[in-house]
Design brief:
- By secondary structure, this protein is mostly helical.
- The protein has helices at about 5-20, 25-35, 45-55, 65-70.
- Helix 2 packs across helix 3 (about 45-55).
Length: about 70
Amino acid sequence: MARSTLWQETAETIRAFLDGRLARKEAEAWAVNVIAEETFLSDELILEQAVLTLLELQGPRVTFAKAQHDLEH
């Protein structure tokens, strides 16, 4: 996938999740697919962290407030 497309998809997935248009499970499933298929470059730390934060939504100890704060940044 082209990097600009991955950045755009990640941003849209985050916006959809924060706006309530995408359920936690859907955001997590999207992130699982990205992690399974992508190798992040060393200068893509922010992109990788955004995808990993979406992936971590499945964790029972991750509160919406914490996830929202992390994703907004």
